[in-house]
Write a structure and sequence with these properties.
94 residues, six-stranded antiparallel beta sheet, alpha+beta
């Protein structure tokens, strides 16, 4: 469930931009007990996430995503997710 919340947060960042963009970079590595993925788009949206199984039920995930709002503010979110929930840190700049 927490994994789905983290993925949803990344997808919301893309949806927020509400514009078409081309993929500049993209990579993914998905294994049974760990994963990494990332992408960068021409509209300055960028995301990276990696995680691994701590035990049979618990994913430990960390990542970040960033984008520029319609009014020109740069937003960067770094986060971790673990058995205690989703822990974001948001940075704003002009």
């Amino acid at each position: 469930m927490k994994f789905a919340i983290v993925v949803l947060a990344c997808l919301l960042a893309v949806a927020y931009a509400n514009e078409e963009a081309d993929v500049v970079k993209e990579y993914r590595e998905v294994n049974i007990e760990d994963f990494k993925y990332g992408y960068e788009l021409t509209n300055k949206i960028r995301a990276f996430q990696e995680g691994h199984l701590q035990d049979e039920k618990t994913w430990l995930v960390k990542g970040e995503y960033e984008f520029v709002t319609k009014d020109g503010k740069h937003i960067k979110v770094t986060y971790t997710a673990d058995e205690y929930g989703y822990h974001p840190k948001v940075e704003h700049s002009q």
